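forwarding from the other thread:

> can someone predict this with zinc ion?

sure thing
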Amino acid sequence: MIFYNPALDFRFLDYGIEIPVEDSRAQTVFSHLQKLDSSLEYFDTSLVPAISKDDLLLVHNLDFVDHLYGPYSELEREMMTCFELVDSSGNYHRYNPKNAKKDFSHAIDILLKQTGMTYLATKESLKSGFSYFLGGGMHHAMSFGGRGFGLVNDIVIALRKLQNEKLIKSAWVIDVDAHKGDGTAELTARDSSITTLSIHMKEGWPLDSGTVRDPWFIPCDIEVGIDVGEEDQYLDRLQMALNEMALNYPHPDVAIVVNGADPYEHDELQSTDKLKLSLEQMLKRDILVYEFLRERKIPQSYVMAGGYGKRSWEIYTQFLKFVWESSSKRSEVSSR
Ligand SMILES: [Zn+2]
């Protein structure tokens, strides 16, 4: 099932944030899917469960959560850190508040609704085996605050909420975004019920050099760093990592796939230029993960994560088209 409503798109420019995310990427993907299946409709946002302060506290620490609900200046500071809107000398960086049409209270509302969608889509995948939310994937958000364009970690919040409701015990997070899922790693480092795999650019993230003691250097359970020029090894190394996951952490109740399109060679965010997979390699990547989970009957729930510039929609669309075509073939065979 596809989860999407344009009302939940996070439009950077609305808040004066000048980051090259094509605002319409999810909408473009959805329109292409409607050509395949005309019955596809926007998800009714009134059905998205509210994410409460208690839900956030399943993952984030009290200081940070208090800032989100506290005076506007505290929320603003958390947003500035998260979206890297101030440079080291204290000046605005790719941020032009004069152009903002909405304030950050609106932004947090959208991001919490996206978190509700990640939760709902993952819950639905437990029944149907597959769901895709055209949004979410804030994998850099850590216990103490938002980072790397992700304010709260919708992935871990969704899983912990499902665990609290006794709908799942264990989960995998398979993160194929170009950047390491460092927030997810930090949040689940001492949680054996959630296993994390991240395949990403070897260098270039975390951005702050820092020291290895910094929380963003905490490794995922299985971590694969692809160095500049190693694109031809990408698929084999992903396959090996998945095999290792299935061997050492078998039978999870669900898997969330952090399906970033930013390893694509035509991605426009400068910090992703150390990994350049072709359109064809990107499709093979997604099919590899999809079939791996399907063969093992592990429910799979996808979130979009990073994907920047005019062509990122191609990656999501080609994969969802593949899923649609292969599942309609399967239902044809079974109805015979
Ligand atoms: Zn990314």
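The longest strand covers residues 194-201. thats all i got for now
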